[in-house]
Amino acid sequence: MAQWIYLNGEFVNKEDAKISVYDHGYLYGDGIFEGIRVYEGNIFKCKEHMDRLYDGAKSIMLEIPLSYDEMQEALIEAVKKNEIIDGYIRLVISRGTGDLGLDPRRCPVANVIIIVEQLSIYSEEDYVNGLKIVSVSTRRNIPDAMNPKIKSLNYLNNVLVKIQANLAGVGEALMLNSDGFVAEGSGDNIFIVKDGMIITPPSYIGALEGITRAAIIDICNQHGYVVKEQPFTLHDVYVADEVFLTGTAAEVIATREVDGRIIGEGKAGPITMHLLKEFRKIVNKDGVQVYK
Ligand code: PMP
């Protein structure tokens, strides 16, 4: 089936979806993006993703050429056009086409791209067995230089983490902030469980305010778990009863080993599995229905 890409208000074939080499997203990583899941025709947490997008745009003074409602409509249309029931949306807003100078004033209008695809995710076995991960030497960008709360197109920090994960032969890795506190993975937030308490780093540590992270905190509160946003170190990860990662693509996935230390029983623990189960109960409901 043809894949239709939304490109500045029009749907074009994947092969024809082209953008200028003078685009500042390409030249400077100047822009923002979102990754959003569609579950059974439901754009999961659509509003939350849009809020993060528009907040990021405000922060970097990027004017999105679509209103909030128009953007939501464009997402719905892109999912429909590609006849996707379960999939993944990549929404990219770059500063636009300019010249070789980095001045954003040279880019009169932002480029807006929406790609909708099927998603290849972890196997069900991975969710039960948990992932083996490592920590890496690459530190998280410091918030007063390039705030990790902004889901910007400048992902080199994360790419460097992924390269270190690749070199270590694992799929995901943890980065610390410059004070040595655990920040997040290259594309996921982290939670640890110790003596029944669930802890995730506060976003000021240098972590993205993940939509899945927020959904899991809500689920914890609804189910009577004690959940705290508190800084912790690698030692706390090593001695945790359970460690899991959250993200749009990963959902809620356990880690069975971190830096050679076996976590808990060496497989997904009961709290992780319970949270995954509860999370999967809301994914087709909490959001915007495409096929009403
Ligand atoms: N941290 C980083 C660096 C990410 O790229 C992502 C994925 N967007 C996350 C955390 C998880 O965020 P979310 O749950 O919104 O996908």
TrEMBL record:
The keyword Transmembrane belongs to this UniProt entry's keyword annotation: no
A Pfam family annotated for this UniProt entry: Aminotran_4
GO cellular component terms given for this protein: cytosol
One GO process term, biological-process aspect: L-valine biosynthetic process
Enzyme class, first EC level, given as a word: transferase
Catalyzed chemical reaction(s): L-isoleucine + 2-oxoglutarate = (S)-3-methyl-2-oxopentanoate + L-glutamate; L-valine + 2-oxoglutarate = 3-methyl-2-oxobutanoate + L-glutamate; L-leucine + 2-oxoglutarate = 4-methyl-2-oxopentanoate + L-glutamate
Segments traversing the membrane: none
Family: Belongs to the class-IV pyridoxal-phosphate-dependent aminotransferase family.
Name recorded for this polypeptide: Branched-chain-amino-acid aminotransferase
Organism: Chengkuizengella marina
